[in-house]
Amino acid sequence: MMPLSDHEKDILKQLEQSLHEDDPRFAARMEGQSRSLMRRVVLGALCVVVGLLTVIWGAAIHLVFLGVAGFAVMVAGGYYASLGISPSRLRFGRPSMGLPGQSQHI
C-alpha cells in the first residue's frame, strides 16, 4: 500500500471537518464504533492466541483440564471478537441467491 500524499491528507482532513460540522452526533458515533470494534477484535484475537498456546501447553504436559481451559478461552475470545461485527459488514453475510446458473423458480 502506498502512503497518502500531502494533498490527499489535506482533502481527507477537510472531509472529516465537514462531517463534524454537518452532523457532529453521527461523526462522534462513528469514531467511537471504530475504536471499540478495533479494541474488541484485538482483545479477542489475543485471547484466541493465549488459548491456543494453553491448549498446546496442556497437551505437552499431559494435563487435559489445561487443554480444555485453553479451548474455552479460544472460543470465548473468538466470540468476543465477533460481537461487534454485523453480518452486513461481511461479504458472505448476505442471503444466498443460489448457485450461478440455478433457477430461482419453485
How would you describe what is shown here?
The protein is mostly helical and about 110 residues long. The protein contains 3 helices and no strands. The chain has helices spanning about 5-20, 25-60, 65-80. Helix 1 packs across helix 2 (about 25-60) and helix 2 (about 25-60) runs antiparallel to helix 3. The radius of gyration is 22 Å and the shape is elongated. The model has no long low-confidence stretch (mean pLDDT about 80).
Largest sheet: none
Continuous helix count:
3
Instruction: Return the structural class.
Output: mainly alpha
Termini separation (Å)?
47 Å
Average pLDDT works out at 80
Morphology call: elongated
> Roughly what fraction of the amino acids lie in strands?
under 5%
Low-pLDDT segments, ≥5 res: none
Radius of gyration over alpha carbons?
Answer: 22 Å
Order of helices and strands: HHH
Number of distinct beta strands? 0
Percentage of residues assigned to helices: 55-70%
Quaternary structure annotation: single chain
